[in-house]
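Recap from last week: sequence in, structure out.
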Amino acid sequence: MTDINTRKRGKKWEYYFEAARIGGKRQRISKGGFSTKAEAMRAGVEAMHEYQNAGTVIVPADISVHDYMEYWLNSYCIPNLKPSTVTNYRKYLRLHVLPVIGKYRLANLSAEQLQALINDMVSAGYSRNTVTGVKGILSNSMNYAVQPLHYIKASPMAFVKIPKGSRSAYKTSQYEREVIEDSIIEQIFERFPKGSSPYLPMLFAYHCGMRLGEAYAVTWDNVDFENKTITINKQLQWDDEQKFWYLTPPKYNSVRTIGIDQFVLDLLKTVKDEQERAKAYYAEYYTTIYYNENEGINEHDGEVIRFVNTYENGGFIQPRTIQHASMAIHKFYPKFTFHALRHTHCTRLLEAGAPIKYVQERLGHKDVKVTLDVYNHLTQKQTEQGNEILDKLFK
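Predicted structure tokens:
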């Protein structure tokens, strides 16, 4: 085995060790500038370990859960997953995992500790989605530590379960099932009329059931005026690592072509005409929006992309504008969320008797069970209304 050596050069210390021969010639790895011999030796040990593990600076027996998770994010998640997914993983780890188990050695992590973490989250009232998300991150990261890394022999998450219990044990969003009344809808669009930056996306949510990222990502090539349809084939997401907006397939890859009502059709014809006139008016000062994989949405390089929702001068309107709109709407309707517009669209269709499968495909629900959940909520409400009528009828 190669030895690590140290030597003093002037007032500083240096480590060095022999590396593999290249072209038959001996190679040496060294680095100087250390204040003490011990400091140089410690650095030499780390450097040799890095060299022997082909660049992986990790000692499996000693690495903490905190350091391993950072390594897993950088080596596996970032190259293979969407930036938005990596951002969510970082958030879950920072808020729920690392404060609890980050200090422990990966090799000593037990199923008992991980089960306690999950149980405590349920007891604390976190939503089932959050608990499931944390469990998924832990399972995936531990599996990666087993294969292909061989840092641990078996995953301690193998037998960790989310407690069944009562659904009431989980906290649900107070806005998750909010249906906005017609009078409030009128107020919302009076506050943000045609021409305001969030108008079209909110209209797409209310009239078409689009998600936030989908509504802001609609381009003119998605609109078929002849057949009265819009194809939803992308969404806008923020890359928190590289700080730009990028395009990705819709959630659950729910690409779909949906019908649009006459109001939306006529509106889009008007908007397109207005954009063409604005482009002629601003001439060389009209903003052209480009897209490329390395920079996302930008104004200088890539493929030209023509969003339906733009500023008068052609400028890009980012989804974060809905945050400012929400703050204004909360003054007269505190329960507002963008998702509530989508949920209201779903609910109104089911109330009007639209087939469940039609609604599922229109909204891009991953599973018809999601649509049925809304439908069951409606039937329960209708049953209560029916019982009230019954009581009044025979009182």
